[in-house]
Structure formats: C-alpha cells, structure tokens
Design brief:
The structure holds two protein chains of two kinds. Chain A has helices at about 20-35, 50, 75-90, 100-105, 105-110, 225-240, 245-250, 290-295, 325-340; strands spanning about 5-10, 40-45, 60-65, 95, 115-125, 130-135, 140-145, 150-155, 175, 185-190, 205-210, 240-245, 280-285, 300-305, 320-325. Chain A is α/β, with parallel strands linked by helices. Chain A has two domains: about 5-175, HUPs (Rossmann fold, 3-Layer(aba) Sandwich); about 195-340, Rossmann fold. In chain A, strand 1, helix 1 and strand 2 form a beta-alpha-beta unit. The radius of gyration of chain A is 23 Å and the shape is elongated. The mean pLDDT of chain A is about 90. In chain B, about 50% of the residues are buried. By secondary structure, chain B is α/β, with parallel strands linked by helices. Classes of the chains: A alpha/beta, B alpha/beta. At the A-B interface, helix 3, helix 4, helix 5, strand 5 and strand 6 of A face helix 4, strand 9, strand 10, strand 11 and strand 14 of B.
C-alpha cells in the first residue's frame, strides 16, 4: 500500500506557496486517488500558517517545518527541513516540485532517507503501481520508468500539472522540528537584471528565439547588430514575450564576434541550454538544428522565420516556416503590434 | 597559500550533440544503437566546470585539480586526446558503462568511493565540481549524492560564478527561476558546486599542456579500476524517440507585410 508525501515551499514573498509547489499538490492528489493512497503535504516556510490555508481543502494531513532559517533557499537548512518532514510522514512516495530550491536538495534528502530519486518527471501513470515519464539525452529520448525500492522521490518538472486552486480556509498544521547543522552559507539575495533588461519570462505565453543570423552580414554586405537588438527588444516590449537564443549566438561573445548585449547563456535554449515551456514559440534567424530544437520540446505551437527554405525547421520541426528576412518581418510586425496597442 | 583549494571535477562523456540517437533495448536494459562507436565529447556543463576549476586553481597557487571520469576506458582515452589539450589536470578514470540509463545512485556511490580514496586529497579544502546536469541522464542528482556521501552540506547548483575571497570564504551565483541568480556567501571549503555555463570561453588547444597531461593520463587509464553499476530497482518500461513529426507549412510567397499580419493574428489567438 503506497502513501504519498508532497513537499512544498513558500515562494519569494513568504506568504504563498510557490506555483510549482501547488502543481505538485495537484499531482499528489491525482496520484493518491489513482493508488487509493493516503496524502500528506509537507511545508517549508518561515511561517507556514498563512501558506497552509491555501491547502485547507485538499483533505491532506499537513506538516510544516517553520522558522527564520527556512525563509531562504539554502542546501543545509532545506535538506534538514525536508528530511524532518519525510521522517515524520514515513511515506513510500515523495513528490517534489522541480524548483531550483528543492532540485538543489531532493537527491541529498533521498540519500539520507535511504531512498532513491528520479527527476524531471513530466507525467505520472500506471494503475496499481507508479510509472513515471522522463526524458534522457536532453529531451531526445523519452522513457517510462518504475522502481521497486522505497522511499521513491519523484521531482516533477514545473508546468506539467495545473496549480492546485482549492478553496482557502483555516488549515490544521502539525509542526515538525528540524535539526539544523551549523549554517555556513548565508543567502544574500537575488541578482536580477534591471526590469527593462529582464528578457527571461518563464510564465508568459510566447517565446521569441534569436539565432546567430541576426549578427551576420545582411544583403547590403554589412552587419546590423544595433538594429537587430532594437528590433528584438522592441518585439519583447510590445508582446511581453520571453527571449531565448541559440548556443551559437550566445557563444559569439566569448569568440570576439559581434553580440547582442542583452543576451547571456541564461537565454540559451537547446541541448546545452534550457527547455522552457511556453504555448507558442517564434524562431528567428536560426536553422532548427537538432541540438537547438531539443530545447523546443515543450513548445506547443512553433513558427520560424528563416531565409533558408531547407532549414531544419522545415523538416517537421515547426508548424509554419516563413521563408523571409527576419529584419523586415519583425520591423513590420513590431509596427503592427504597436499600432494595435495604441 | 591560504586559499589553495583541492578541486575534484566529476565529468562524464556523452555522445557528440550533433549525432543522431536511437534507443535500443538490450539484455541489461535500454541503451543507444552503436553507442560505442558514436563520437563522444566531455559532458558540456561538466566541461564548463573543468575550465572554471582550472581558472580557479591557476589564481590560487598550491591548488590541485583532479578530473574523475566514469566511462569505458577506450572512449575515455579518445575524449581525453582533446580535453587534455585544454587545461592541466590529473585524470582519475573509472572503467564503467557509458550512457544515461544506469542509475545515478550507483554512479554516485562509485564516484564518492573513488574521491574518498584519492591520494593527497585534503577533504577540508575540497571543492567538488561538475555539471549541474549531464547531457545523458540529465537528472541533476549525481553531484548532490556524491556530496552527501562525502558529508558535504554546502551545495550549490546551476552555478555561473564563484569568487574566492582572501579569508577562504567564497561568493556563489546560482541560477534560479526567471533568469535570476541567487547570491550566497559560504564560509569556506568543503562545498559542492554543480556548474551551469559559467563565464569562461572554451580554452584553446595547447599542445604543450596536452603532452604534459598525456604523460599521466595514459598510465592512469591503464590502471583504471572497473566499476559495475547496480540498478537499485530501477526498471525501464520503455525508451523511445518522440514520435511527433509536424506537418510543416513552408510559406515562400508572402511579403513581409503579409507575414507580419499573419503573425499578429497568431500571437493574439488563444
């Protein structure tokens, strides 16, 4: 008989659970129903009383590790908190949201519990047993796995379940004590680009991906990096889209070639970059090569603008490929979008 | 040399990203078709960590750098022919299976045991480096597990920068959600750092460094211990390529104005 613990944590504000945590709660409820298993939810937060209210209607047993030490993401304190919750809950399955905070500690906690972990889970299935789907080789091979060993930790990819949105209410929370080791790390805070320079927006519907073509010679024989930058930023401004880039474009900075100053390796998608989840993606000036396209695995609706009608996008990777000059199309597109906005 | 550090980089070898991969099922579980003959490279994020490690070691005299790598000896030798020309290190090879399908817990156990036995390693000065995820299994758990096995409770993942201070403490930038970095200050070694891309470009090949490295790499490969990885109850029910092939509409005859108008409608549609 399986029993399920969902680990959750507060978001940056400290007053609500992170979105990925609420997604894990949904996954936990579905799995508990499927397996007819008991459901426990563990909370890590400075103050769990407020955040727990959003879980009042789950019907789950709520546990919490609280205190100022758990206000910030840090391996030593988070691992201690999660370990305490797991030991208190004594479940066979532990679902963990795939946030940077818990991805940092989940494997360590699994080891402390004598358990095993699998990560980047995109789907949970199976009738009497748990079958988990995940990708290998950077989104190129999809596998369904199962494990006999328990406890089994499953780190869920963000965006694979809807966020739990039950009726809030007064929740009963059992406080669990966590034994903290000497804390040698102090979290100083977050370092983010200035608001108008922040180009990575994981929660928006549209992704724009810029390829190396933006910084190559154009039909007039000249490079137009400044204009390319203005067009791309203009598009982001008017649509609120997130910006991704190909590896070749972000690598150019290290190779002394012209660069778009707002692009970093953080923008890079593909085999050595990220695999974002957006409803729509528009590729510009990149050729749809396989290592790049694996970063598009979870983009539902894909369009591309490329001068090459035989590029990789045209071979079943995009829904629509426009054979055109991205400089011209994006300029017209920005003008139309700005006019519509006005 | 107050800031001399002992850096151990864990890095596997992976198929060259440009290769076509085809999963097959063998008697021991899934693998890749012709895996042993696919050209291989050092795992990209782990390679970033190696370059960052070499840079850190060079800035802090008295530091040491080991590269611990698990894979078939023949493939390791092939990959080292290139990697050895990049930066100076001492290779600690472990002769084991290739690929992303073996269990990460078993891999971590072998790596931890090997690191714990490294002659000359001062674990109080240890910085355990590697990629935050591999390009094979991509689980992002092996370094954490090795760190736990070595009793290291200061761990950082998605690292893009480390600044070692004179007092031995260091600042770390870790990637978090939304294109931000979390800034932390750790009192000092030992620590685990799973690297993302970092800030350094790939070093140019240096034949002199390569020759110096190969003098120790070849004997190390010859003496590499064999490791068997347990499955730990992990069962593969299937492993396959994604089947979605889109029916691409290639639009060649529209003007930029017409394309822009079509895209406006597409962006606005639910």
């Amino acid at each position: 008989m399986e029993s399920i613990l969902v680990l959750t944590h507060a978001d940056e504000s400290g007053f609500a659970l992170s979105k990925a945590s609420l997604e894990a709660v949904t996954a936990g409820k579905e799995l508990a129903t499927q397996l007819k298993a008991s459901l426990t939810i563990g909370i890590v937060a400075a103050d769990a009383a407020i955040v727990a209210n959003s879980l009042a209607s789950t019907g789950a047993h709520l546990l919490a590790v609280t205190g100022e030490a758990f206000n910030q993401p840090r391996y030593a304190s988070d691992a201690a908190a999660c370990e305490a919750l797991c030991r208190a809950a004594q479940t066979t399955i532990i679902l963990v949201p795939g946030t940077s905070r818990f991805a940092r500690v989940a494997a360590g906690v699994a080891h402390r519990l004598g358990g095993f972990i699998d990560t980047h889970i995109t789907a949970l299935g199976g009738a009497d047993t748990v079958e988990a789907t995940r990708w290998y080789y950077r989104q190129r091979v999809e596998a369904v796995i199962s494990r006999d060993a328990r406890p089994w930790f499953l780190l869920l990819d963000a965006g694979t379940h809807s966020a739990y949105a039950g009726q809030p209410g007064a929740a009963q929370v059992e406080q669990i004590a966590a034994e903290l080791p000497a804390l040698r790390t102090i979290v100083s805070g977050l370092r983010a680009p200035a608001q108008d320079a922040q180009t990575i927006r994981p929660d928006v519907k549209l992704l724009l991906v810029a390829g190396a073509g933006w910084t190559k010679k154009q039909p007039d024989g000249q490079i137009h990096v400044k204009e390319a930058g203005e067009l791309i930023l203009g598009f982001l401004r008017v649509t609120g889209a997130s910006l991704g880039s190909s590896k070749s474009l972000v690598d150019q900075g290290g190779e002394g070639e012209p660069v778009l100053p707002f692009l970093t390796h953080m923008n890079q998608i593909g085999q050595t970059g990220s695999t974002p989840r957006h409803a729509k993606g528009l590729s510009t000036c990149c050729h749809g090569e396989e290592p790049h396209v694996v970063g598009w695995r979870f983009i539902a609706d894909r369009r591309a603008i490329s001068l090459d009608p035989n590029c990789g996008w045209a071979r079943g990777k995009a829904d629509v490929v426009y054979v055109a000059d991205a400089f011209q199309v994006i300029a017209k597109l920005n003008a139309l979008l700005e006019a519509a906005k006005a | 040399m107050p800031n001399a550090v002992h850096i151990v980089v864990c890095a596997g070898i992976v198929p060259d990203p440009l290769q076509t991969l085809e999963p097959i099922t063998g008697p021991t579980g899934p693998g890749l078709k012709n895996e042993m003959v696919l050209p291989a490279v050092l795992d990209p994020w782990a390679a970033s960590s190696l370059y960052e490690a070499a840079n850190l070691a060079a800035k802090n005299p008295g530091s040491k750098l080991w590269l611990v790598s698990l894979g078939p000896k023949a493939k390791l030798q092939q990959v080292m022919m290139t990697v050895a020309q990049k930066v100076a290190f001492e290779l600690v090879p472990i002769d084991g299976p290739i690929g992303g399908f073996p269990d990460a817990h078993s891999t971590a156990a072998v790596l931890a045991e090997t690191i714990a036995a490294l002659p000359g390693l001062d674990r109080s000065k240890l910085l355990l480096f590697g990629g935050w995820e591999s390009a094979t299994r991509g689980a992002g758990v092996t370094l954490q597990l090795v760190g736990e096995r070595l009793g290291i409770t200061d761990q950082f993942q998605g690292v893009d920068q480390i600044d070692l201070r004179e007092d031995g403490s260091f600042e770390v930038l870790e990637r978090v959600e939304g294109g931000k970095h979390q800034l932390s200050v750790c009192a000092g070694t030992p620590a685990v750092l799973g690297w993302a891309t970092g800030n350094l470009a790939e070093p140019r090949n240096n034949p002199q460094v390569g020759m110096a490295n190969m003098r120790t790499i070849m004997p190390a490969l010859a003496k590499a211990k064999a490791a068997k990885l347990e499955a730990n109850g992990l069962r593969y029910l299937s492993a396959s390529l994604p089947k979605q092939q889109r029916t691409t509409r290639v639009v060649k005859d529209l003007t930029p104005d017409q394309i822009a108008a079509e895209l406006v409608a597409w962006i606005g549609a639910e």
